[in-house]
Amino acid sequence: MTEQKRRKFDSLQIINAPSKTKSETEGNLVLQNLSAGDRVQLLPISGRVSYAQYIGHTPGISLLVTTPKTLDAFKGQILNVRILLQGNLYSFQSTIISLNQLPIGYIHLNYPSNVQVKAIREETRVSVMLDVQVEGQKEFANGKTTSQAIITDMSNGGASIEAPVQLGILGDKMTVTANIKTDEFEKKINIPCSICQVRGWEDAQTKELTVLHGIKFEFPNKEDKDFVEKYVAQQILYAQTCKII
């Protein structure tokens, strides 16, 4: 079953989210590294969230984005805007100063003077339901070296994995394989890991065993590390959009 089918709004949440005093500051909006087509989240004061694509900007004057079909936009409308850029989440309030239809539908937003900047820190975890395959360097408790499992929460630096068998003990090495999908791409990724925590429980009636493993990612390259960080950041943004935190 895919992550999309399994995930529910009421089970998606930030776990041990960092405090605002440490992770959120006021700053300036710096868009030099934002590319045309990157996603911008628009949330009206009253209404549902919409997603636009970044077109361009004039510093200090306006920000240009496409007009989402799901947004009942009008001149003077106040929007809460969020932009994810290089590991930081920029949040600010803006007003539509102009609506245009040609050559495509696009919006001029007034350029913000007050921006909240939150770093997506390594220990910030978000709950997910991601099917994975685990391959151990040593045999698992059932004598095998491969098993299906589920990642139940994830951060930039590690994850919690639920499995029907104990996959090892503290310090044991294994590789987790998963199909991870961001807003832009889907990629099959193999992540070397080490176990840093193990705990489990048994169903009193069925005697079914569930074991939860805390793992630390040991990325072999920067490309995979950056891809996972982007996925985690987008899941955090999604959880905040659903107003779960």
Note down, in words, how this protein is organized.
The strands form 2 sheets. Strands 10-11-12-15-14-13 form a 6-stranded antiparallel beta barrel. Strands 3-4-5-8-7-6 form a 6-stranded antiparallel β-barrel. It contains 3 helices and 15 strands. It folds into 2 domains: 19-119, Electron Transport, Fmn-binding Protein, Chain A (Pnp Oxidase, Chain A, Roll), CATH 2.30.110.10; 125-241, predicted glycosyltransferase like domains (Thrombin, subunit H). Helices cover 11% and strands 49% of the residues. The model is unreliable at 1-23 (pLDDT under 50). It has 245 residues and is mainly beta. It starts with a helix and ends with a helix. It has helices at 3-6, 20-23, 222-241; strands spanning 14-15, 24-27, 39-44, 50-58, 62-66, 78-85, 88-100, 106-110, 115-119, 125-136, 146-154, 158-163, 173-181, 186-202, 209-217. Strand 7 and strand 8 form a beta hairpin.
